[in-house]
Design brief:
Number of helices: 17
Structural class: alpha/beta
Number of domains: 2
CATH superfamily of the largest domain: FAD/NAD(P)-binding domain
CATH topology of the largest domain: FAD/NAD(P)-binding domain
Helix content: 25-40%
Largest sheet: 8 strands, mixed
Strand content: 15-25%
Distance between the termini: 30 Å
Bound molecules: NADP nicotinamide-adenine-dinucleotide phosphate
Radius of gyration: 24 Å
Length: 546
C-alpha cells in the first residue's frame, strides 16, 4: 500500500484502514478507475481476486482466446501517448497480447502498488452513521471507504460448471475456459471433450483440434458464427492506423456499439435477393461482427433477420462435408444475433477433420459423467480431459457473489431478487456512493466494453469531483428514476429481436436466475448523451446529500 488513510476519517474510528474509494476488480475498468481517482487526489485501494491484474483477460486464458472487437478499438483511448506507444500485432488480439497490453498500461501509470492481488471482496456494507462503506475481504481484512466502486466485470470469475451428475467420479482432468489454469495444459495426444458451443467453445475447438488425439464436441444449442478473418497488422499499416487514431476514436463515440463496422442504413427487405446475397458475401469475406450491420433491421425485423440467417446456414452446409454433422451445426429457433454472434477461425471446417466428432445433445442428451468419460443417452465417450465452455453467471453474478448491503442492511441480493434494478446502470437506490462500472442496465456487453468502461469511469470521476467541489457527502439513485430507467431498458429491448432468444443476456443460462434482458440496447452514443445530460442538470434523478 502506498497511500495513507484518508484525512477525514480516523482508521481507528472506522474499525480498519480507510480510503476515499475502494475499487473491486483490476481489469480494464478497475485499473482506469484507479488512475482517475489518483488524478482527483483521492486515496484508493483496489482489490483483485486473481493472482494478477487483467480481469476477464486474466481468467479466460484458454487456447484460442481472442477478442472479437478489433485491437485498435479494444484499447484505452484516454491517453494518446499510450495508444501511440503500444503496437498491436493482429487485427483481433489474442488473450496473451491483451494481457500484455493491460500490464503495459499498469506499468506506465504505475498502478500496481495500490492493487491488492489474491484478495476477494466478500462483503460490502453501508454504515449509515459513518456514511462509509465497510468492505471485507477473504483475507480477513476490513477497510472503510466513502465510495465503493464495483469494477467486477460482466464475464469474469463467475464461471458456470453445470451440475451434471458424476463429475466427481471422472478419472481424467476437467477445466473451465473461464478459469483456465495459468500453468501450461498439455492437451497433445489426449482425448478431449468440449461441452458448450458459445463464443468460448467456438474459439477453443479449432485451436486444440490439430493437437489432440480426438475431440468430441458436446453441443446443445448450435451458435451462429461468422469468420473473424484475423490477420497480422504489419508495421506500415499499424503506423497508418495510429495516425488516424483521433478520428477513429471520435467515430467510435458516435456509434451505437462503440466501434464502427461499415453500417448500412438500408432495410434488408428493400433490396432484392441477389443484392442481399452479394452484401452478405462481401461481409463474410471481410470477416468480423460487421456482418450484423449489413442492414439496419437485422435485429429489429424477423423477416430481415431470416435473410441473414439463411445465408449463414447455407455457408455451414457448404463448409461441413458430412451432411448429418452440418445439419446438426445449423442454428434454428432463434434470431441470428439475438444470442451473441460468434466470430471464428475455421470453426466449421474443424468438423471435417477425422479426429473431431460432433455429439448432438439435442438428439442424445448427456446422461452423466462416468469415470472414463461422458455418457449420453446412446453412447459413452472415453475422455482424458473435459473442457467446460459453459459460460458465466453473467453481469449480475460477479456483483451478487459479494454480500452487498445498502441502507437498513438491505442485501442487494434481495433487492435484485427479480432482476437487476439500476439507474443508468451506474447506481442502485438505497446504496449511496456505490457505483457499478459497465454493469446491468448499461450498454456493457452489447458494446465495445473498453469504450463503455472508459465512459463510465469518466462519468464516475466527474461525479466524485462534483461532490468534492460542492462539499456533498453522497449521491444515490432516486427510486423513481431507477424504476423509470428499468422500464426504459425493457422497452428498448422489447423493440428488438433480442428477447426472443434464451441466452445469458436474459439470464436463461443459469438455473433459477430471473429472466430479464440485462444490457441496455439504446446505443453507446445516445446512452452517453443521456449520462452527460443528467450530470449537466446537477445529477438529475439522483439524490445528493451534504
Ligand atoms: P455461452 O455463450 O453462455 O455458451 C455456453 C455454452 O455452453 C452454450 O453452448 C450452452 O448451451 C452450453 N452449455 C451450458 N450448460 C450446458 C450443459 N449442461 N450441457 C451442455 N451444454 C451446456 O458462454 P461462452 O461461450 O463462454 O461465452 C460467453 C460470452 O463471453 C460470449 O457471449 C461473449 O460475450 C464473451 N466471449 C467473448 C469472446 C470473444 O471476444 N471472442 C470469447 C469468449 C467469450 P445452451 O446454449 O444450450 O445452454
Amino acid at each position: 500500500m502506498t497511500q495513507g488513510p484518508a484525512q477525514n476519517l480516523s482508521p481507528e474510528a472506522a474499525g480498519g484502514l480507510a480510503y476515499d474509494a475502494v475499487v473491486v476488480g483490476a481489469g480494464f475498468a478497475g485499473l482506469y478507475m484507479l488512475h482517475r481517482l489518483r488524478q482527483l487526489g483521492l486515496t484508493a485501494r483496489v482489490f483483485e481476486a486473481g493472482e494478477d491484474i487483467g480481469g476477464t483477460w486474466y481468467w479466460n486464458s484458454y487456447p484460442g482466446a481472442r477478442c472479437d472487437v478489433e485491437s485498435l478499438d479494444y484499447s484505452y483511448s484516454f491517453s494518446d501517448a499510450l495508444q501511440q506507444e503500444w503496437t498491436w500485432s493482429e487485427r483481433f488480439a489474442t488473450q496473451p497480447e491483451i494481457l500484455r497490453y493491460i500490464h503495459f498500461v499498469a506499468d506506465r501509470l504505475n498502478l500496481r502498488p495500490q492493487v491488492s492481488l489474491r484478495t476477494r471482496v466478500t462483503a460490502a456494507a453501508y454504515d449509515e452513521v459513518a456514511r462509509r462503506w465497510r468492505v471485507e475481504t477473504d483475507r480477513g481484512e476490513a477497510v472503510m471507504a466513502r465510495f465503493c466502486i464495483m469494477a467486477t466485470g460482466c464475464l469474469t470469475a463467475a464461471a458456470v460448471v453445470p451440475e451434471i451428475p458424476g463429475l466427481g467420479d471422472f478419472k481424467g482432468r476437467w477445466l473451465h475456459t473461464g478459469n483456465w489454469p495459468k500453468q501450461p495444459v498439455d492437451l497433445a495426444g489426449r482425448r478431449v471433450g468440449v461441452i458448450g458451443t458459445g463464443s468460448s467453445g467456438i474459439q477453443v475447438i479449432p485451436a486444440i483440434a490439430p493437437e489432440v488425439a480426438q475431440l468430441c464436441v458436446f453441443q446443445r444449442t448450435p451458435s451462429f458464427s461468422v469468420p473473424a478473418r484475423n490477420a497480422p497488422l504489419d508495421p506500415a499499416r499499424m503506423a497508418e492506423l495510429k495516425a488516424g487514431y483521433a478520428q477513429r476514436r471520435a467515430a467510435n463515440l458516435q456509434s451505437a456499439a462503440g466501434y464502427v463496422y461499415d453500417p448500412n442504413f438500408q432495410s434488408a427487405l428493400e433490396v432484392d435477393d441477389a443484392q442481399r446475397q452479394a452484401e452478405y458475401e462481401a461481409r463474410w469475406r471481410k470477416g468480423g461482427a460487421g456482418f450484423l450491420v449489413a442492414y439496419k433491421d437485422l435485429l429489429l425485423n424477423q423477416a430481415a433477420n431470416d435473410t441473414a440467417a439463411g445465408f449463414v446456414r447455407a455457408k455451414i452446409r457448404a463448409i461441413v462435408q458430412d451432411p448429418v454433422t452440418a445439419e446438426a451445426l445449423v442454428p434454428r429457433g432463434f434470431p441470428m444475433g439475438a444470442r451473441r454472434l460468434c466470430l471464428d477461425s475455421d470453426y466449421y471446417a474443424s468438423f471435417n477433420r477425422a479426429n473431431v466428432k460432433l455429439v448432438d445433445l439435442l438428439k442424445s442428451p448427456i446422461d452423466r459423467i462416468v469415470p472414463e468419460g461422458i455418457r449420453t443417452a446412446d453412447a459413452t465417450y472415453a475422455l482424458d480431459v473435459i473442457v467446460f465452455a459453459t459460460g458465466f453467471d453473467a453481469m449480475t453474478g460477479p456483483l451478487l457473489r459479494i454480500d452487498i448491503r445498502g441502507r437498513g442492511g438491505l442485501p442487494l441480493r434481495r433487492k435484485w431478487a427479480r432482476g437487476p434494478l439500476t439507474y443508468l446502470g451506474l447506481q442502485v437506490a438505497g446504496f449511496p456512493n456505490l457505483f457499478i462500472v459497465a454493469g446491468p442496465g448499461s450498454p456493457s456487453v452489447l458494446s465495445n466494453m473498453v469504450v463503455s468502461i472508459e465512459q463510465h469511469v469518466d462519468w464516475i470521476a466527474q461525479c466524485l469531483h462534483y461532490l468534492q467541489r460542492n462539499a456533498l457527502a453522497s449521491i444515490e439513485a432516486a427510486a423513481d428514476s431507477e424504476a423509470a430507467w428499468v422500464r426504459h431498458v425493457n422497452e428498448v429491448a422489447g423493440r428488438t429481436l433480442y428477447p426472443l432468444a434464451s441466452s445469458w443476456y436474459t439470464g436463461a443460462n443459469v438455473a433459477g436466475k430471473p429472466r430479464v434482458f440485462t444490457p441496455y440496447l439504446g446505443g453507446v452514443h445516445k446512452y452517453r448523451e443521456r449520462c452527460e445530460q443528467v450530470a449537466a442538470q446537477g445529477y438529475k434523478g439522483f439524490v445528493l446529500q451534504r
